[in-house]
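=== Structure Prediction Worksheet ===
Name of assembly: unnamed complex
Input type: mixed (protein and possibly other molecules)
Chain count: two
Listed entries:
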Amino acid sequence: MKTVLMVAEKPSLAQSIAKILSRGTMSSHKGLNGACSVHEYTGTFAGQPVHFKMTSVCGHVMTLDFLGKYNKWDKVDPAELFSQAPTEKKEANPKLNMVKFLQVEARGCDYIVLWLDCDKEGENICFEVLDAVLPVMNKAHSGEKTVFRAQFSSITDTDICHAMAHLGSPDHNEALSVDARQELDLRIGCAFTRFQTKYFQGKYGDLDSSLISFGPCQTPTLGFCVERHDKIQSFTPETYWVLQAKVNADENRTLLLDWDRVRVFDREIAQMFLNMTKLEKEAQVEATSKKEKAKQRPLALNTVEMLRVASSSLGMGPQHAMQTAERLYTQGYISYPRTETTHYPENFDLKGPLRQQSNHPYWADTVKQLLVEGINRPRKGHDAGDHPPITPMKAATEVELGGDAWRLYEYITRHFIATVSYDCRYLQSTIAFRLGPEHFTCSGKTVLSPGFTAIMPWQSVPLEESLPTCQCGDTFPVSEVKLLEKQTSPPDYLTEAELITLMEKHGIGTDASIPVHINNICQRNYVTVESGRRLKPTNLGIVLVHGYYKIDVELVQPTIRSAVEKQLNLIAQGRADYRQVLGHTLDVFKRKFHYFVDSIAGMDELMEVSFSPLAATGKPLSRCGKCHRFMKYIQAKPSRLHCSHCDETYTLPPNGTIKLYKELRCPLDDFELVLWSSGSRGKSYPLCPYCYNHPPFRDMKKGMGCNECTHPTCQHSLSMLGVGQCVECESGVLVLDPTSGPKWKMACNRCNVVAHCFENAHRVRVAADTCGVCEAALLDVDFNKAKSPLPSGETQHTGCVFCDPVFQELVELKHAASCHPMHRGGPGRRQGRGRGRGRRPLGKPGPRRPKDKMSALAAYFV
DNA sequence: GCAAGGTC
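=== Predicted Assembly ===
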C-alpha cells in the first residue's frame, strides 16, 4: 500500500484536519522532536487504498542569516550587507530538529499533500518542507504527480473535505515573494542597525540601550509614538467660549442645554451672544423627536481586537496578553488565538460552546435565556480564511484560572456570548429650543432592551433621566444663561490600543508580530509604558525619529513597508521577476543607506543635545594597562570601560556589578583586574578588561574572564584555580572563587552551577596535587578554630572536595541566583540524582581540570 | 549583538 504524507503548519491543525479526514479513526503518536505529532489512518487517494500520515511543522522550518563570518560586527562594513555578504538558510529552531523529523516521517512515502496555511508565508513553508522531504521520498514514476497543495479557507468538515477532493499545486511565485521579503528585511535591518549602534555607542556613554536598532516595522511603530509626542509639544492651547443655558423642567429639576454653535473662539462675539440671550425669560420648544436606535453587538473576536481590549481595559500589554492567550489555548480553554477572521463559518456550532457556559456562576442566567429564547445570528464579519474567531472551548472558573488568565478568559467568553446576543436598543429623544435668536438642544437616551450590553456591562448605554414630554411651542422658564471660558487641551500620549489600530491600518506587522514590534521599541528603551498603557517616547526614541526626519523621512514613514510589499506582491502574482525586484529594492535602500551614513552628522547634532560623550560619562574605576591612567566605568547598557586618553572602549559582561579587584593587575597587559558579580546568591569572577575583549591565547574566545583563562601561572587563571569538571555541563570547569570567603564557593565557568563548599574556613587554596581517584585538584583548607568540622579540633586539612569523606559532607550544589537545591552533600541522599544526560553525582566527577599545561604554555609564547 | 515572519 502506498503512503501519503501530509503536512500542516502547526500541530493543532494537523490534529484537527486528520480528525476530519479520518472521521476520527486515526491513531496518533509523538514525533522525535516531542513537539509534533503524527496521525495515521487508511483511506483512498487517487482511486487506490493508501496509508495516510498527517503531521506538521511549527511555523517556518528555515530562517535566513548571513554566513558566519559576516556576523562579526567589527570586521564587516555594514554597507557590505547590501550585496556582497552571502546569506544562508539555517534551521529556524535547531532544538526542534525539524528537517530530521520530516525526513524520518517522509522516508518511503509516495505522495505529499501540503496543508500549510493559505497565505504567502504558508506557501513559502511548503517549499521549505519539500526541500527537506523530496530527497528521501520514493521516486515518482515518470510523469506522475506526487506533490499536492490543499487549498482551504476554514477548518470545517466541508472545507477540508472539499480541499482534499480538489488538490492543486504549491505556488512558487508566492513562496519567492517571501524569500525576497526575508532577504530585504535581513539586509536592510542589519545594515542600519549595525551602523547606528556602532556609530552612537562609540560616541555616547549614556544611551541606555545595548542596541540602536532599525527595522521596516519597528521604526514606523516608534514613528507613530514620536509623532504624537511632537503634537503634544507643539500644541498651543486656545481659549474658547461656550454659551450654557439651563431651563427648569419642573420644580426640582433643571435641564442643561447644548448650544448649537458648540463654541466660539472670539471673546467679543461670545459676549454678544450672551447679551442677546441673557434677558430671555423663556426657552421655546421648536421641535421634538424620538428615534429608536441600536448599538450593535460586537463582531466575533480576532487577535488584534483582543490585544486592543487587553491593553485598554485589562491593562495587559500585547506580549503578555498573547502569552496568556496561548496558554489558555494549549490548555483547551479557548480556540486558536492567532486569527484575523471576525466571521464564523456558516456551519459553525455556536450553541455548543454556549451550552458549556450555561452553569457558569457569573453568566449562567444570560446564557440560559439565550438558549431558551434562541440565539441571534452573529454579524457578518471579515473572513481572512485562517482560523475561526477566538471562542471559549470549555467553561472555567476564576479559581481555576486565576489572575490575568482568568481576566482574559472572562473577556473572551463575555465577548463570545455578546456576538450571539441581540443588539442593545434605546430611544434617543431630542428637544430643540430657541432662546432669543440662538438655538439649543437637549437629548437623552433611554434603554429599551439592553441586549448584549447585559453581558458586556462596560458597553452599556449610561442611565439617564428621561426628558420631559413636551410639544412644539411649549415654553420652559430659563434658570440661567452664562458664558463658560475654556481652553483647548493637547492630546495625550498614544495608547497601546491606538498604536495597534494605527499599525493594523498601515499594514505594519501582522497579528502575530504586532506585539513583538511594540515590545521591541520598549526593550530598546525608545518608549516607556506610562499609566493607562500610554507609550511615551524617551529622549533616545525622539532623537532617532527626528534624525530620520532630517535625513530621510521615508525611513520612518509607514509607507516604507507598504511600498516594499507592493513590489513583493508583483513577484507573488508572477508579474515581476524575483531577482529583478530584489536587486532593484536593495539598490534603492543601499543608496538610502549611503546617504544616511553621509548625513549622520544631522542626527548626531540632536544626539549631542541629549547625551554625553563617552569621555564625560561614568566613574573612574580601574587603570588602563597602556597609559596607566584611570578608565571610566560606564554603567549604562552596554556596560563598558572607557580610557579617554587612549580613546579605547572595553566591553564588560552584561547584567551584574563590576568592582575593582584589589588593584591586582593582569600579568599579560598590566590592566587592572575588575571583579564581575551576579549578586550575593550568584557567582563572581575576576576579569582583565583587555583580555576580555582581546583573547590572549589561541584557545580562548572573546568574552572570557580569568576563570576561563588558560594562563599557566597567573594566580587568577583557570589553570591555577580550576578544581574539577562541572557536574552538570559538558565543557565547564568548577573554579574556586577566591573572593567568596568566609562562605567559600566554586562556580562553573560555563553554566550557572555553584558549589558551596566551606562555611567556616578562613583560607582555601587550590593545591598542586590532584586526587588519585577522580583527578580533581585537592583543596588546602584552614578552618576556624572554634567551628572546625575536623576531629579533635584540628584546623588544617587537604583533600578532594568530591572524594574526601570530611569535605564531601560540606559541599552543597546550587544554581547561581536561582538557588534550587540540586544536591545536598553526604551519603544516603545520593539516590535519585543525576537525571539527564551528562550529569554526574558530585561524588564521581569525570575527567577534570585542564591537564594539558604544556599546550597552554606553548600558546602563551605564540 | 542585527530584521520580520512563522510557531512552542
